[in-house]
Amino acid sequence: MTDLIRSESQPQPGAETIGNIECRAFIDGRFVAPVNDGRFDCINPATGKIIAKVASCDADDVDLAVRASRRAFDAGHWSRCDPEFRRRVLVRLADLIEQASDELAVLETMDTGKLIRDSSTLDIPGAASVFRFFGEACDKLVDETVPVGPGALATITREPVGVVGAVVPWNFPLKMASWKCAPALAAGNSVILKPAEQSPLTALRLASLAAEAGMPEGVFNVLPGFGPDVGGPIGLHSGIDCVGFTGSTEIGKRFLGYASQSNMKRIWLECGGKSACIVFPDVRDLEAAAKAAAAGVFFNQGEVCSATSRLFVHKNILKDFLPLLLQATQAYEPGDPMHSDSGMGAMISEEHTERVLSYIAKGRQEAELVAGGNRILLDTGGCFITPTIFLGAAPDSVIASEEIFGPVLCVIPFESEAEVVSIANASIYGLGASVWTQDLDRAIRMSRALHAGSISVNAVDHVDVRTPFGGVKQSGNGRDLSLHAFDKYSDLKTTWIALGKTA
Ligand code: NAD
User: Fold this and answer.
1) Active-site residue among 108, 270, 303, 403?
2) Ligand 1 centroid to 245 CA: how many Å?
3) How many domains, in total, are found in the chain?
4) pLDDT given at position 462
5) Is the pLDDT of residue 486 over 60?
6) Index of the ligand 1 atom closest to the CA of residue 169
7) Ligand 1 atom at minimal distance to the Cα of residue 179
8) Spatial distance between the Cα atoms of 346 and 334, rounded to a whole number of angstroms
9) Measured from the CA of 247, which atom of ligand 1 is nearest?
10) Are residues 117 and 232 in the same domain?
């Protein structure tokens, strides 16, 4: 771990490792230089320093990885093995992630600027638990026999789809990779993972851990690089049967286009959000609701797809609620992400910081700024924004309707249940929603009325490996996590056997 931190203070020009972490592509069971020898700088957004030179892959590397993946798939060592073997390898991989968790947490924090506290207690253990869950599940799912009468035997069996592309974002790099790769691998597919260009390091480390866990060559490949260079060719390659994508709605739509221009590969999308948190006057503990509302938008610098960035507060409690919210917000003062007492870390990049600041500038015209609104700690060379709250934005204003993906909250008063349902649903997104009430009937009515993939009642954004996660409308299709994730990465085969005379 100290090696990793030392590598940043003394970056090696052109270095292809950070500490002992490989920064080349991982294809067919080994680390290799990209075909066209491209590299890009990997930057720590909390310091602005280069931490590594990472392989910048392109369409030629995608083609190599697809060939290796297909060879592995056709050989059947993984795709047609006894699933007990897949279980052992994936559970071993979960163990290895846990053993390497300190190193992975430091890598994740250096790469993204997120708090080390969160990397080490949430991101890395979360990724391990996802590999463990899907590993454990792979030899426990059973196929179906259909009651079709004595003259035939009809079975429905699951088969892996083939070669799966996994294209993931930078906000939870290892966790998002696990959400795609674990179910796809457990179902018997070969996988090509493309991490975001802002955060490739833990994906590369995952490749070496997968090899150590005993995953056969070619089954798992990692191609770092830029979206148009690697993500585009993955979307367009006719040797890829399915893509699991997490990222923006804009790029998600491009993947639908890639599929239509190539082989109609199936595209599963987890995209943007603008989730609502709704606080009714009968909430039991106003302070707990205020703390949760702050966490719902400021956790991980607000770089969370399901962040509850629209907070609807009933007008009768707004006067009491707002001071509690402002107090809770003080816990999110940004600072060095490696320090345990920092409340938020750094934003992912200069570019994204500018984008969030431009939304804040717009917000100053559209609503009343009641907290934050500044870039701070400029002397660190890092990208830090204070937790920001706007009051009274019109529901259809820019800051209350577009995904900002930063620590920016819009507080909007409401008067009636019908009104808040209608405003909350008037969004192109539908990822999550949170409802605070003690009235059971109201909780159930709201859960049924809100257009979102997950509803948390008296909690915000509750995510669990055993329950599905995903959205409706332009937040995406399909679901990550839970046993339902297997559906995305397997095909159903019907076999109908006409029987001879039965006794
Ligand atoms: P992004 O869409 O810019 O990038 C996501 C991935 O797509 C990256 O790997 C990127 O390199 C790749 N990509 C970029 N341009 C591409 C192109 N032209 N062709 C093919 N691939 C391309 O998103 P981001 O900025 O990395 O992440 C933020 C977004 O992700 C937010 O909108 C957020 O809501 C969303 N997100 C959604 C979920 C979810 O589960 N719904 C989870 C996390 C993040």
Assistant:
1) 270
2) 8
3) 2
4) 92
5) yes
6) 26
7) 40
8) 7
9) 30
10) yes
Determine, yes or no, domain membership for 497.
no
Q: What DSSP state is assigned to residue 168?
A: -
Residue partners of 174: CB distance under 8 A and separation at least 6: 97, 104, 108, 123, 124, 127, 202, 203, 206
Rounded to the nearest angstrom, the distance between the alpha carbon of 248 and the centre of ligand 1 is 4
What are the E-state strand segments in 241-308? 242-246, 266-270, 276-279
> Atom 40 of ligand 1 has which residue's CA nearest to it?
270
Domain that holds residue 162: 2-271+478-490
The pLDDT > 90 percentage for the chain reads 95
Same domain, 336 and 224: no
pLDDT at 349 over 70: yes
**159 C-beta neighbours (distance < 10 Å), count:** 15
81 DSSP 8-state letter: S
d(C-alpha 302, C-alpha 347), whole Å: 9
Do residues 283 and 266 both lie within one domain? Answer: no
305 is catalytic: yes
| Total Cβ atoms within 10 A of residue 162 | 20
H or E element: which one contains 296?
helix 286-298
DSSP code, position 79: T
Give the pLDDT score at 19. Answer: 66
SS3 379: helix
Rg of the chain taking only CA atoms, in angstroms: 24
346, part of any domain: yes
Q: How confident is the model at residue 501 (pLDDT cuts 50, 70, 90)?
A: confident
User: For the residues of 11-46, what is the DSSP string, one character each?
Assistant: PPTT-SEETTEE-SEEETTEEE--TT--EEEEEETT
* 225-235: average pLDDT: 98
**202-to-1, 99, 107, 285, 345 alpha-carbon distances in Å:** 13, 14, 6, 39, 18
Burial annotation 221-235 (CB, 10 A radius, 16+ → b, else e): bbbbbbbebbbbbbb
Q: Which two tokens mark 470?
A: 């995903």
d(CA 493, ligand 1 centre) in Å: 32
* b/e 321-348 (16+ beta carbons within 10 angstroms → b): bbebbeebbeebbbbbbbeeebbbbbbb
User: What does the DSSP 8-state code read for residue 300?
Assistant: G
Q: Could you confirm whether 351 is annotated as catalytic?
A: no
* Contact residues of ligand 1, CB 6 A cut-off: 167-171, 176, 194, 196-197, 226-228, 231-232, 235, 246-248, 251, 254, 270-273, 305, 403, 405, 431, 471, 475-476
